[in-house]
Each structure stands twice: as C-alpha cells, then as structure tokens.
Amino acid sequence: MPTSDTDNPIEEELSSEAEERLAVLLEELTTGPVDQAHNRLEKLCLQN
C-alpha cells in the first residue's frame, strides 16, 4: 500500500530550533573526546 510523504512523520520538516540543536550535537560528536581518542589511536597505529 503506497504512502505519501505527508503520512510519514519522519519526513516532516524540522523546525529551525531542532536543526540548530542537531548541528550543535554533530559538532560536539566530531570534536568531542571520542573523536580525540580516535585521533590518538590513529597516531599510535601510525607510529608502530
């Protein structure tokens, strides 16, 4: 049974506030301690 885009809540447009929070979360993920730890691991692997 085909569904239109309007029937899918995931397809709804995000509010600008939600988009802003997502952008901040993404930035924190890519600059956070997990990414720093990953970079340190890469450096260790390259040294060996």
Describe this structure in words.
This protein has 2 helices and no strands. It has 48 residues and is mostly helical. The longest helix has 16 residues, at 16-31. The mean pLDDT is 75.
In short, what is this structure?
This protein has 48 residues and is mainly α. The chain has two helices and no strands. 65% of the residues lie in helices and 0% in strands.
Integer-rounded radius of gyration: 19 Å
Give a short account of the largest sheet. Answer: none
Binned, the helix content reads 55-70%
Which structural class matches the secondary elements?
mainly alpha
**Number of DSSP E strands:** 0
First-last Cα distance: 56 Å
Outline, from the CA principal axes? elongated
Strand percentage, roughly? Answer: under 5%
H/E element sequence: HH
Number of helices: 2
List the keywords.
2 helices; 48 residues; single chain; 65% helix; mainly alpha
Could you give the topology of this structure?
Layout: H1 16-31, H2 33-47
